[in-house]
Amino acid sequence: MPDILDYLKGQQLEMESALQKLVEAESPSKNKPLADQCGTVLKELFEEIVGGTAETIVKEEVGNQYRFTYGSGAEQILIIGHYDTVWDQGALPLRKEEGVLYGPGVFDMKGGLVIVLWALRALKHIGEEGKRKVVFLVTSDEEIGSAQSRGLIEEEAKKSALVLVPESSISTTGAVKTSRKGIGIFKISVRGKPVHAGINPWAGASAIDELVMQLAQLKKLDNQEENISINIGTVSGGGRTNVVAAFAEADIDLRFRNIEQGERLKSAILNRTPFIEGTEVEVTGDINRYPMEQTDAVMELYQQLKEIAAGHGYELEHGNSGGASDGNLTAAIGTPTIDGLGPVGDGAHAENEHVILENLPYRSALLAELIKRHMN
After folding, report:
1. Which has the closest alpha carbon to 347: 82, 141, 14, 87?
2. How many helices (H) and strands (E) does the chain have?
3. Which helix (H) or strand (E) holds 95?
4. Can you say how many angstroms the Cα of residue 327 is from the centroid of all Cα atoms in its chain?
5. Does residue 343 contact residue 116 with C-beta atoms inside 8 Å?
6. Which residues of 165-198 are buried (b: 16+ CB within 10 A; e: fewer)?
7. Cα–chain center distance at 72
8. CB neighbourhood size of 141 (10 A)
9. Concatenated DSSP letters for 302-343?
10. Quick one: residue 299, left, alpha or beta (phi over 0 = left, psi -120 to 50 = alpha)?
11. Residues 87 and 104 sit within 8 Å (Cβ to Cβ)
12. C-alpha distance from residue 19 to each of 22, 34, 117, 331, 363 (Å)
């Protein structure tokens, strides 16, 4: 049987070329025309490189999404990825320097998409098919919360034996992600009683004063030892310096390690009572994604990956990510999910976003051999 890694090493230049095409096809989450152009490039690459079944799932508000299928087994392995990025058009230049490719979305997560394409190409090259087909689901709204794709992701995960997520690896080390934090998104809004700030300020009730007190209390939930973070992301309110504020609000990002923490913190955030008489406090929001917890099934997948990597001559580590991905969604419904299978690089959501090009065949071979183990 041909060696998968040797085959993919011979494909490195083609992998680099495909990655450049995907990165050049910029795809901001909220720019549907641009996103659709990128989706078309991805679909054409799949048909050219893999040649399986390509289904377009039309979306009205975000870029179209795609269900690619390799093989024809009755059961399935699910790979999930996204092609949208956090970058506006023209925000970052595409450049290649000393074996490193820089550009918008190259690490998060277009490099991972290319790794999947060539993993499937390698399986096709060796004639590998089994009782399980591979469904490669690529969405277009992950960076803005997956509202248009969540149902589809969960539906496919329920039909799958396992889920593989080629999101960016842990920066610089290339470690895969065996757990991810959960995330909650909340907004706290306060209404006060406006009066003239000079004539009789004590007759009013400041929405800003109340918000400050509420936020100070919420920050007490922050606990580094338990991996709980409360981030006050935005604050706004008031209208004039000589008027006691009538309104104020803030956006809150919650990160937590396990489901029990999430439920407890959600209750504490939502159930607020005013400190200042005459103000009204309203909190909206919910848990956006529950954690991807480190289960025995996940660690079994990691051990298999570690064994494959050792056969390729390197040690593969694993770790936790404070960020969330669509892997949180599939893990929450009970399907074994392992994440961070994308390329080695750094700079997700940062101006130095990049991938190490010579590593692409290794990551693709890692994924291909894991899929091969689970196809039969």
Report:
1. 87
2. 10, 16
3. strand 95-97
4. 7
5. no
6. bbbbbbeeebbbbbbbbbbbbbebbbbbbbbeee
7. 28
8. 22
9. HHHHHHHHHHTTSPPPEEEESS--HHHHHHHTT--EEB--S-
10. alpha
11. yes
12. 5, 17, 10, 28, 14
Determine the angle formed by the axes of helices 12-24 and 360-374, rounding to 10 degrees. 100
pTM: 0.90
CA distances from 127 to 178, 372, 373 (A): 30, 11, 14
- Which residues are bridge partners to 179 per DSSP? 320
Strand, coil or helix: 369: helix
Residue 203 DSSP label = G
- Rounded CA-CA distance 273/286 in Å is 18
Distances from the Cα of 92 to the Cα of 30, 40, 218, angstroms? 17, 21, 36
Two tokens, residue 333: 């419904």
Q: Cα–Cα distance between 114 and 168 in angstroms, integer?
A: 12
Q: What tens-digit pLDDT sequence spans the chain (376 residues)?
A: 459 999 999 999 999 999 999 999 999 999 999 999 999 999 999 999 999 999 999 999 999 999 999 999 899 999 999 999 999 999 999 999 999 999 999 999 999 999 999 999 999 999 988 899 999 999 999 999 999 999 999 999 999 999 999 999 999 899 999 999 999 999 999 999 999 999 999 999 999 999 999 999 999 999 999 999 999 999 999 999 999 999 999 999 999 999 999 999 999 999 999 999 999 999 999 999 999 999 999 999 999 999 999 999 999 999 999 889 999 999 999 999 999 999 999 999 999 999 999 999 999 999 999 999 999 8
Q: How many C-beta atoms surround the C-beta of residue 148 within 10 A?
A: 19
Rounded distance between C-alpha atoms, residue 5 and residue 311, angstroms: 10
CA distances to 169, 263, 273, 318 from 270, rounded to whole Å, are 34, 11, 10, 34
Distance CA 222, CA 211 (A): 17
Specify whether the CB–CB gap between 270 and 197 falls below 8 A: no
Give the whole-angstrom CA distance, residue 25 versus residue 279: 50
User: How far apart are alpha carbons 269 and 283 in whole angstroms?
Assistant: 7
Q: In this structure, what DSSP letter does residue 149 have?
A: T
Alpha carbons 100 and 23: distance in angstroms, whole number: 14
